[in-house]
Design goal:
196 residues; alpha/beta; Alpha/beta knot; eight-stranded mixed sheet; 25% strand; binds S-adenosylmethionine
Amino acid sequence: MREFIMYSRKGVTSSDFTLKDLPGSGGRMDLNARCVISALWLSRDLRRDSRMVFSLNGPSDPPLAMAFDGKELERVTPDERNIGLWIKKVLERRDEVDGDWKEVHDGIYLSEKSFQELIKDRQDRNLYVLHESGGDIRSTDIKEDPVFILGDHIGLPRNEEGFVERFGSEKISLGPESYFSTQSIVLVHNELDRRR
Ligand SMILES: C[S@@+](CC[C@H](N)C(=O)[O-])C[C@H]1O[C@@H](n2cnc3c(N)ncnc32)[C@H](O)[C@@H]1O
């Protein structure tokens, strides 16, 4: 399975945001929604072997983590507004979550896990931090069951990057430019699709 974890500094942890203003009222929830599309959809199919997780650290009650799993997703369409709506619906049921993951809708999970807990839970997997200054992905052996960790529009906070490094992660670059988070996800998929 290909898993992507994005650290969202401002992504809100309450459902009190408007679909008309995902960037402002949602704390760049537009970015999270687009990452879900890039991680899980092909032109004519869902990527059933992929999962998009985001760590939400914005107001009013962080942290929260939300996961969209391509294997189980139902009735979700690949447009930003529709995914924003599902994020809102899931956050409306925040009270039902007590710590660990709960499947709130088919293929959409919510938990109170912090970014560091998400990483600790995956310490036995192959962790790759997507970073402009990493080694070239084209000369990197991407092992089984990879987890790719990326930053939002501002980048991964230094302390979180340092935390991931403690678990033997590898830092990899996707090319000479700084890409959007969504573009980075597509580039990883493309590279792995070509290798398959
Ligand atoms: C818009 S970029 C963040 C830019 C931010 N200003 C910075 O300097 O870190 C969002 C994320 O995409 C990933 N990314 C962007 N360009 C990349 C590249 N060339 N190689 C690997 N990852 C990249 C990184 O995870 C980054 O945190």
